[in-house]
Write the structure tokens for this entry.
Amino acid sequence: MNSRQRRGVILLLLSVLCAFAAFAGVLSVISDVNSKVGPEVAAYQVKSDIAPYGALDPGQFEKVTMPKRWLSKNAVTDLSVLNGKIAVTELHKGSLLQDDMFVTRPRLENGQQEIAIMIDAATGVAGKIRPGNLVNIYATFAGQTDKDKPTSRVIVPNAKVIDVGQLTSLEPKRDGNATGPTEAVPITFALNTTDAQRVAYAESFAEHVRLALLPDDSPTTLRPGEGSYSLDEDKNK
């Protein structure tokens, strides 16, 4: 083997060694990336905006994949958990679905029935009432005669809200009165028969029906005389 051939062999060996070194470097980079990123898992994001309090359906979400280590602990990876759930707030398109975005829809208990009434959005709801809340239902009645004073009554204490509908525009009253509410929200309650009758009566004959939100797990206990109120009670004090 002459000197030229020896140089060729040496260059060939150097080329092979460089190739192995480059390959080892690529493997090292891939291993480093895998150690930082980790395996990918399935998650779900919102396809389009979802209104609050509406029942959730798997078809409203699309599957995405991302590194497991980047996924939050409360991210939803199985859409079967949506069965019987409702959104607690508006879900925006592209948002990653997480378990604090929904709750179980309240259910009726034995002896209860659903009844829905329209509540003035400005004075009765204010965006704070959600399914599962307890509220006191107040109704204001005009006096039956000119001598009778208007009274405000708690017609149902501790009424359980099971659904909150969409904001709805109200048609003007036939008498031309433009001072009434222009928007209302349908609120559905779980009530026994007697309380449902009280609510139906109030919606038909009361001048105003309003809701008072109660703290969680803190029902109202009405003492004697607290169920109704008229302005004369303060004047006589």
Observations:
- The longest strand covers residues 151-164.
- The mean pLDDT is 80.
- The helical segments are 3-37, 121-125, 193-205, 231-235.
